[in-house]
Amino acid sequence: MLTITDTVKSYNGNIVVNVPQLEIATGEIVGLVGNNGAGKTTLFRLLLDLIRADKGQILSKEQNVAATEDWKKYTAAYLDEGFLINYLTPEEYFYFTGKLHQLSKADVDEFLGNFEAFFDGSVLNSGKYIRDLSKGNQFKVGIAACLLQNPELLILDEPFASLDPSSQMRLIRMVKELPAQRRTTVLISSHDLNHVTDVCNRILLMEKGRIIKDIDTTADTLQELETYFEV
After folding, report:
1. CA 76 to chain centre
2. What gap in Å lies between CA 207 and CA 16, rounded to an integer?
3. Rounded to an integer, what distance in angstroms lies between the CA atom of residue 84 and that of residue 90?
């Protein structure tokens, strides 16, 4: 699904991402962990061609993301509220997103019916614009809009951070089901080691822009990560 080769990004002479080689296969759920400034979000922005690398290339399904926009058809991402159209209501945003992907209003309504528990009665029919929702509910809108697109590649930056515990558990279940249901490849960054080791089958540990460990998740992975982050 993804191949990253000799990719470097720096700001003011400071290297923030340096990935010599990384491959992510279709259907993997991959977690990025690391302290603030490790380069996780910057790597995601490179994958989405929101910023350009100083050198190297990133291939999505063997196509360079900097040279084509074909990958956008099957890629969905939510990094922060800047990905939303905040002057729309959630319903308007979902219908707009659905229209972009050739879904009818009835298709979108049917899809949203599966999210009643996740929305917990606080997203739809609230009469609020997205900008007036809590950060947690904005995340719910962003995540649901991503899944509405039926993506082959899903990228989520800190999706658990603003969610309440019940919503976190529901999100974990949804993400775990994606590879089996849709062959979706998922990339998640998180500071929550418990959640990321629970949901991901592979963990990339980043430090100062480099991937210093590439771990297949096992029962011992959480302890290994906790030991690394101990001060």
Report:
1. 8
2. 9
3. 10
pTM: 0.92
Could you give the CA distance from residue 197 to residue 200 in angstroms, rounded to a whole number?
A: 5
Nearest CA among 21, 19, 15 for reference residue 210 = 19
Kind plus residue range of the DSSP H or E element containing 49: none
DSSP symbol at 39: S
3-state secondary structure of 31: strand
* Contact call for residues 29 and 200 (beta carbons, < 8 A): yes
Question: Could you list the pLDDT tens digit for every one of the 231 residues in the chain?
Answer: 999 999 999 998 899 999 999 999 999 999 999 999 899 999 999 999 999 999 999 999 999 999 999 999 999 999 888 889 999 999 999 999 999 999 999 999 999 998 888 898 889 888 899 999 999 999 999 999 999 999 999 999 998 888 889 999 999 998 988 888 778 999 999 998 999 999 999 999 999 999 999 988 888 888 888 888 885
Q: Tokens 């209003």 appear where?
A: 105
Q: From CA 13, how far away is CA 10, in angstroms rounded?
A: 6
Which residues, 6+ apart, have CB-to-CB distance to 64 below 8 Å?
57, 58
